[in-house]
Amino acid sequence: MAVVGGGIVGLSVAWHLQRYDVEVVVLEQGRIGEGASWGNAGWLTPALARPLPDPHVLRFGLRALLDPASPVYLPPTADPATWRFLLGFARHCTTPAARRAMAALAPLNRQAIAAFDELADVHAVPRTRDAQPFLACFGSTQEAMALVRELQDLEEHGQRPHFDYLTGPQVHAAEPALGAGVAAAVALRGQRYLHPPLFVASLRAAVEEAGGVVREGSTVTGVRRDVAGLRVVTATGEDLRVDAVVLCGGAGSGDLLREHGVRRPVQAGRGYSFSVTGAEVPSGPVYFPVERIACTPLHDPWVTERDEQWRPLPVTPRLRIAGMMEFRPHGAPLDPRRIEAIVAAVRPLLPGVDLDDRQDEWVGSRPCTTDGLPLIGPTRTPGVHVATGHGMWGVVHGPLTGRLLAEQVVTGRASPLLRPFRPTR
């Protein structure tokens, strides 16, 4: 069986297929995990995992979309396909649509962290780190109360996030690295985080140790069905015969998906990140919702050699700073102005961080759909399946997606959790 795409979703699918004794080859057009799985914030925050289309997002986006310093940016030269995507996205930015989408995601959110523990229990990956707590920080109490209301609304979908509301000195007692302009915060309990590159590396190692084949530099140009079964064709002319295929190629999957009856577009929502250090680096994950900026400490990474215990190595603490939602074609070069916009926004919020000594500047494409829901399940071509379109939540939902889809591919039994995510909807 072939899995096209070697990010956290593709590797999770591959690993869970192997639990059913399926022989797997993972085909990645670049290097494993170098896409959205490499440079993201590494948050496991089910309490914040919401569909992107929302009435508030639409109002904010219309004002900010063409501002190069905005956390949401659309270049004036955007192609027609991007404008069509945004029109479809706007149609889903209604309160009824947002509620339906949240009802679909909530069951995944409730099981997401357990899926990471399942991998760690068998030493496939290191254990994720508890965020004690996870802080969402604001410049005013009014801004903070908007998040409090969102968290309270989750109860109607069966999610009951635990949180504390902090103001004034409570905020800086919880995280001394915050600037004086942070006046209020929501301290979320029960959330986690991970080191994205090392997590992906460990999952790749687990797939290979179980007998899977991982091929980098393998660009899949087509998946065909003929009388003999399925053929996977690569740009180098390789022609693989397989029993089934799972397409997990993220924002670059569009052409392959359309070949198999998946008409819902997958648009690149590009995010930027870099890492820094300084005199005062936050000890845990910090989120600035108004600025749309995520900060994650990457200290104490785990060794990549797998053994019975994952041992932390002492290294200089670094902070990954990530942000932006930029609608540009997948594969477009990094725009330095986006990095500069993040730096300008963060400078007064984290004054003890050295933002002029940046490393690992990166841009990657989140695969976004018009309704904010992933595409998980079979296509119109027998034997061809899809797992992509997770938007900002590919890390959160990746291992659970892998388990649920692998079960469906092998047994034919579809979990009720996957019904809202049919690729042909």
TrEMBL record:
Pfam families named among the record's database cross-references: DAO
CC annotations in GO: cytoplasm
Gene3D superfamilies found in the cross-reference section: D-Amino Acid Oxidase, subunit A, domain 2 (3.30.9.10), FAD/NAD(P)-binding domain (3.50.50.60)
Domain FAD dependent oxidoreductase, first and last residues per copy: 2-407
SUPFAM superfamilies: FAD-linked reductases, C-terminal domain (SSF54373), FAD/NAD(P)-binding domain (SSF51905)
One Gene Ontology term of the molecular function aspect: oxidoreductase activity
Keyword set, alphabetical order: Oxidoreductase
PANTHER family: GLYCINE OXIDASE (PTHR13847:SF289), SARCOSINE DEHYDROGENASE-RELATED (PTHR13847)
Name recorded for this polypeptide: Unannotated protein
